[in-house]
Write a structure and sequence with these properties.
By secondary structure, this protein is of the alpha/beta class. It is built from 14 helices and 23 strands. The protein has a seven-stranded mixed beta sheet. Helix 3 packs across helix 4, helix 6 runs parallel beside helix 8 and helix 7 runs antiparallel to helix 8 (249-264).
């Protein structure tokens, strides 16, 4: 296949993926906790522009500004000390007005950037809080805990296409203010609102695998192009937390709150860098993304193929057919043996497929292995083949075979060995295309 055709196929595949995600996420609510360390970064206006683009395609946005850096700077200006206990700031009565000023200032700066992009943002506080009080002998003074969030106003603003901005300040019933955690606020919103995605956006983003101790559940994690863990389910996240006490407070806090958010109802939680240009768009409109995702629902989904999957399966197979890697199949061919096929679906988009055909004497053929153009290095093919191998074991297969022209080295990694046409079942041997001269590989 000419190089330009490969480029066009890859581009077309990426465009299809973007359109599928736009239709899926339109009308959903994304909650974004944005660390204030990003506010002075040259990349911040680009991040806000990308957020404005999400808003423009019908995704509802709610922003919670992180304020730790702004508060620290404000307190230093007035030469006030600030201490922490277990990562929680101890807010004195004297410091509270400065904490409020810093928090509202961070929210106002985000609002200004949204306005510059033609977006109607609105800053408000609809959070009822109470004092944390004294815990294990530590007086948290004017640091509070969320009691309730008044979501009726927030929902109305979202319906009117505003982007609400909630600074992490709460009030009690007497009108007394409390400093609250922005991470806790973003997580708690998932309990009160129907949240499609929660983003924790900072400078460092996702979780690097380097230096991590992995366990049984996290031994084979899929990585992004930047060496980050691409996705974790809740059980894998718990294993990472248990096995890696050396994680920074911020990483541990985000992972722990990601678990809480999923349990509160968020479908997915993303740890993302706000510095890399286009990172939030890639995370939203690509199943591979550019950060670390924590999820409660099933993400990678190898499942039996359905009739509705056949057009996508044919599309994925087509480039393999053009390169002579697969024989051509029609819709009728696949439909006739549909029960043999499985697909690798991410968010219901098909990115890979394969089949396990049964023959006499407990012989089975692995066939039709194909992976979408943008997912060749994402472990999709390996996942499909391993799934089919397990399926063959469950059917008490005595021999597995396959025919290949150019992928024998790849199949050797699954312990297939070179065979001959004599190793094929008679039915398959009789239809063997000598002109094609495919290699026969066998696994007993």
């Amino acid at each position: 296949m000419p190089a330009h055709n490969k480029t066009y196929n890859s581009l077309a595949s990426a465009i299809r993926e973007v359109f599928s995600y736009i239709s899926r996420f339109k009308g959903q609510l994304f909650v974004l906790k944005i660390e204030d360390t990003l506010l002075d970064n040259p990349a911040f206006p680009v991040l806000i522009r990308d957020i404005a683009q999400l808003h423009s395609v019908g995704i509802k946005i709610l922003i919670v500004p992180g304020t730790r850096n702004s508060i620290d700077r404000q307190l230093r200006t007035y030469e006030l000390d600030s201490s922490f206990n277990n990562g929680i700031r101890l807010t004195s009565q004297e410091a509270l007005p400065l904490v409020e000023q810093a928090s509202l200032g961070a929210a106002q700066r985000i609002l200004s950037y949204l306005t510059a992009n033609g977006i109607n943002g609105i800053q408000g506080n609809w959070v009822q809080a109470r004092s944390l009080g004294v815990v294990n002998g530590v007086d948290y003074m004017r640091t509070g805990k969320i009691e309730r969030i008044d979501c009726s106003i927030i929902e109305k603003l979202l319906e009117e296409e505003f982007i609400p901005i909630l600074p992490p300040i709460g009030w009690n019933k007497l009108g007394h203010a409390y400093n609250i955690s922005s991470t806790e606020l973003a997580t708690e919103l998932c309990k009160y609102l129907t949240v499609g995605k929660l983003f924790f956006i900072g400078e460092k983003g996702g979780i690097q695998t380097q230096g991590l101790t992995r366990g049984k559940l996290t031994k084979k994690l899929v990585l992004s192009n930047h060496g980050l863990i691409s996705a974790l389910d809740i059980q894998q996240t718990l294993e990472i937390l248990k096995n890696n006490p050396q994680l920074s407070h911020a990483q541990r806090d985000y992972l722990e709150n990601a678990i809480k958010a999923c349990k509160n109802g968020a479908k997915r939680v993303h740890l993302l860098s706000g510095i890399a240009q286009g990172s939030i768009l890639q995370e939203v409109f690509s199943s591979r993304g550019n950060g670390t995702m924590v999820y409660a629902n099933e993400y990678w989904n190898l499942r039996p193929a359905t009739i509705e999957d056949i057009p996508d399966m044919l599309r994925i197979m087509q480039s393999y057919v053009e390169r002579g890697l697969l024989i051509s199949r029609s819709q009728e061919d696949i439909e006739a043996k549909l029960g043999d096929y499985v697909v690798y679906a991410v968010d219901n988009a098909i990115h890979g497929c394969g089949a396990l055909h049964a023959f006499k004497n407990h012989s089975f053929e692995i066939a039709g292995i194909a992976v979408g153009a943008n997912y060749h290095d994402a472990g999709v093919g390996e996942a499909v083949v391993n799934f089919l191998l397990e399926k063959a074991k469950s059917k008490k297969a005595k021999k597995l075979f396959l025919l290949t022209t150019q992928a024998s080295d790849w199949f050797y990694t699954f312990n297939f060995k070179d065979g001959t046409a004599e190793d094929l079942p008679k039915e398959k041997r009789d239809s063997y295309d000598k002109a094609r001269n495919s290699k026969v590989l066998v696994l007993r």
